[in-house]
């Protein structure tokens, strides 16, 4: 009996030492968590990532150190590979636009249909609708990431080197650089444009050389990247698409953090998103004046002109709504319609 008791005591002693070590090994934090952003902090999008990383570092006393990798450098500038790279463990944190990941997780690009969100009133009504966003966040979790918060990438406008684009026919024959989204490509081709898929890094020399005539991006990007120096003389502020900026953590990384740290990180993302949206809105309010001051011709479409664009993209809209997430997009449409009446 005495021998058996000694064995049991020894076993218990070993377990009491081994279990904490095992638990520590399981929950050991990385020295660095890699976050991908397409643009650097000179842009509102990249600034949102920087704010988030700084808040997390401060609030966790350095336990969670998020390092920003702008230019989608973790995937050699190919922003359409970010989500798949996160699944492979190359990227730990995403601060990005789901439209870039539509080739991997198409359903997450539901907010980007042409003219779905006509203005900021509609945009805010949608992203502040708790049941809708809870449903969207469930889709993100199913795809392999923990969603934390939503910012704003900004309304996308079109610029070109040829002539003012006022009506759909004005796009005929124009070679337009678009991000790696088949939907964006189809929007341009449906109006006679010639879409060319390329990263932003490749787009800039292509615009400068005249190999590409046009590009579509928020005017904030136009200003920060000095796109007017790349031969872009004409801008149309048509607000045709505005994607969310999604803050998300790779599911395995999220699972390795304590509940207390998860709470800190989530709140940091929400605070960063609010600050990032405020930056986007200020830039949006001033962008026409700022771009015009560069000697660029800026056209702001009238309501009838916007209606003509909506009509021209209706077939593309219907086709991609059916392919992406028709029931979910239907709910967005209802929220937008209600915001028009409020």
TrEMBL record:
Residues annotated as signal peptide: 1-25
Keywords: Signal
Pfam families cross-referenced by the UniProt entry: DctP
Tree of life domain: Bacteria
The keyword Signal is annotated on this UniProt entry: yes
InterPro entries recorded: DctP_fam, TRAP_DctP_sf
BP GO annotations: transmembrane transport
PANTHER family noted in UniProt: PTHR33376, SIALIC ACID-BINDING PERIPLASMIC PROTEIN SIAP (PTHR33376:SF4)
Listed NCBIfam families: TRAP_S1
Protein name: TRAP transporter substrate-binding protein DctP
